[in-house]
Amino acid sequence: MAKFRQNHEKGRGADGWMGKISSITVLLIALLAGGFYGIPKMMDSDNGSRSGPRSTADYNNAAKIESHDRSFLPVSSNDNIVHHSYYSLAYNEKKEQADWVAYELTKASLQVKNVPRAKRFNEDPAVRTKSAKHSDYSHSGFTRGHLAPAGDMAFSSDAMRECFYMSNMSPQPRPFNNGIWKELEETTRDWAYKKDAVYVVTGPIFYDDDYETIGKKNKVGVPDAFYKIIVEQGTESSASFIIPNTLSNKHLNKYLVSIDEIEKQTGIDFFSSQLSEEAESKIDGKGWAFNESKYQQRINHWNKQ
Q1: Are the C-beta atoms of 161 and 125 separated by less than 8 Å?
Q2: If you placed Cys at 132, which of 67, 81, 96, 147 could pair as Cys (CB 3.0 to 4.6 Å)?
Q3: pLDDT at 68 (0 to 100)
Q4: How many domains does the chain have?
Q5: Could you give the residue numbers annotated as active site?
Q6: How many Cβ atoms from other residues are within 10 Å of residue 117's Cβ?
Q7: Within-domain flag for 295
Q8: Out of 38-47, 110-119, 124-133, 292-301, which region has the weakest mean confidence (pLDDT)?
Q9: Residues whose CB is less than 8 angstroms from the CB of residue 63 and which lie 6 or more positions away in sequence, other chains included
Q10: Is 153:159 a contact under the CB 8 Å cutoff?
Q11: Can you give the pTM of this predicted structure?
């Protein structure tokens, strides 16, 4: 999965006579002007480009995401629900993956310095029917595609560890996982940063029961497509996608659909307590800017890896 670009802005260096003052002089001025309490703030400024929590502890204390509002979670006939610390899912035992994974993504969480990416995929101990295994994907030709991306969970070691549970994985061809899916994940993080907070729901789509499987024992289903719904908190503005599980050279905006269309194809009810019927019925692209340079990077590089 793609690693989130930590610096959204670049700080500017001092110029003129200030640029010639020695670091010792600057420190003395800071002490005289702001007292000793100014030093931690200066050291925490990240070149002046960001404000907000800079550590996992600071973020958890400020945002209390571990006790997040769950009223936005989807409603379906699948009652095999698992609540992890920073995301929830409905596990489909037959297909050995989640029908949906849902979580809150905030600017505050994206401002926290990234923890190291996890290296191990583990079975999910919270799935009562037992989740798929790492070995189910081995030599299958498919990657272990995150539904809740590692880049979205990089603010906490616990969040990172939990997002590597096999219940959060779905079979994806490498050109899809490293291509358009990566672009959508990075774009979603950019949107969350600009909008302060969004809800994200992601899952697989199977068009019929005659689907390919991998893994001799667990027989993990290979989806025909994936959906992702992003809703700006406190508004009825959303961006929803259905993308075929294969290489794509099309722009992301070509895959915009209504939430109603995703509900029709999955049988899942999304955001019934947050959005009106009108909001769910329209294809909403306003206020959701797409990055042309990111698209060109996918076409010219990511799709060829």
Answers
A1: no
A2: 96
A3: 59
A4: 2
A5: 146
A6: 14
A7: yes
A8: 38-47
A9: 53, 106, 108, 109
A10: yes
A11: 0.81
Q: What's 85's domain CATH number? A: 3.40.570.10
pLDDT digits (tens, 9 = 90+) for 123-156: 999 999 999 999 999 999 999 999 999 999 999 9
> Residue 29 contacts by C-beta under 8 Å, 6 or more apart in sequence?
none
Tokens 């020695």 belong to residue:
22
31 and 166 share a domain? Answer: no
Q: Return the structure tokens found at 210.
A: 């005659």
Buried b or exposed e, range 265-284, using 16+ CB within 10 angstroms? bbebebbeebbeeebbeeeb
Residue numbers of the domain that contains 66: 52-304
The pair of three-digit structure tokens given for residue 235, joined into one six-digit string: 């508004």
5 in any annotated domain: no
